[in-house]
Write a structure and sequence with these properties.
Structural class: alpha/beta
CATH class of the largest domain: Alpha Beta
CATH topology of the largest domain: D-Maltodextrin-Binding Protein, domain 2
Oligomer: single chain
Number of domains: 3
Number of helices: 12
């Protein structure tokens, strides 16, 4: 029995499906099935019930899953300890970026990391929040910023900030529009995000509470595109409150006077990797920039 087999076992248990497990492990479904059979043969027990809808843990599988997870954590901690004993922390950290670099304080982060940990290289990869979470889970990213909730059990969720939002209206529109109640504002032209965007989900929740339908004139998937559409007077949009402040200062938008909800901004890491020296260095450095990211919260999440 090898650690790779235990990792495969845990991955299949987390996904509940051979194909999805194969995608996470960057291999084929037949290969996963064969390795799983080999592990069951070596253990002398059946770990899963195979059904048309997926893979369900047997009673024995549930008991052994806990031990497999503990074994993998111990192996990862041993590897991290060995690396830290070498002295300087080195390596590459791939970070998923879901918003403007300045808003996420990335220039400051790069400067602080370069000063404190010159052996660590940061690679910043832009993406949407759901894609970033999936890539962290698969191991394609080491960490990632995301808006909104995260339902994955194997992801450590580190809240950075409750982000204030605002509905922004083109500056050229009538001055009465910012004063309209939401159900009337909804009848105006709107620039909307795609359904996979947390801002879409937030707007849907806001409108659902008032049983209000919205008039959509465009669907875009980046914040910069939304801002450009507002600048040209094409429609209204829900963005961050700091975007509204910028719009007012630069003269291309004005803020709706009603109350807008907040949206959590968090940093995701795979739970099994939080003790790796490079990621610990990243979190410690980020804590200097994000007050909510404190050692007490990290200790609680890691435990």
């Amino acid at each position: 029995m090898e650690l790779q087999q235990l990792k495969l076992f845990v991955t299949v248990a987390e996904e509940g499906h051979l194909t999805r497990a194969a995608e996470r492990l960057f291999t084929s479904q037949p290969a996963v099935s064969a390795q799983l059979r080999a592990l069951e043969d070596s253990l002398g027990v059946v770990l899963f019930d195979r059904t048309p809808k997926g893979m369900n843990l047997t009673s024995a599988g549930k008991q052994l899953l806990v031990q497999a997870q503990a074994t993998l954590r111990a192996a990862e901690q041993m590897m991290s300890k060995a690396k830290s004993m070498k002295g300087e922390v080195i390596g590459e950290i791939r970070i998923g970026v879901n918003s403007d670099f300045s808003f996420l304080k990335l220039p400051q982060l790069v400067s602080l990391m370069k000063e404190a940990h010159p052996g660590i290289q940061l690679s910043l990869v832009h993406g949407m929040s759901p894609d970033i979470l999936l890539d962290v889970r698969k191991g394609q990213l080491d960490a990632g910023f995301y808006f909104g909730p995260c339902d994955y059990a194997n992801i450590q969720k580190n809240l950075l900030k409750e982000v204030e939002t605002a509905i922004i209206i083109p500056a050229e529109w009538d001055d009465e529009v910012p004063l309209l109640p939401l159900h009337e504002l909804a009848q105006q032209p709107w620039i909307y995000t795609t359904e996979r965007c947390p801002f879409f989900q937030l707007m849907q929740q806001l409108l659902a509470e008032r049983h209000t339908e919205i008039a959509k004139v465009a669907l875009v998937d980046t914040e910069e595109a939304i801002r450009e559409f507002i600048k040209f007077g094409h429609g209204i949009a829900l963005l961050r409150a700091d975007d509204a402040t910028r719009a007012e200062q630069e003269g291309w938008g004005k803020r709706w006077q009603g109350k807008s909800p907040t949206l959590p901004l968090s940093l995701a890491l795979k739970s099994q990797r939080v003790q790796e020296p490079a990621l610990k260095a990243l979190i410690a450095t980020m804590a200097q920039l994000w007050p909510a990211l404190n050692e007490a919260q990290l200790a609680e999440n890691a435990g």
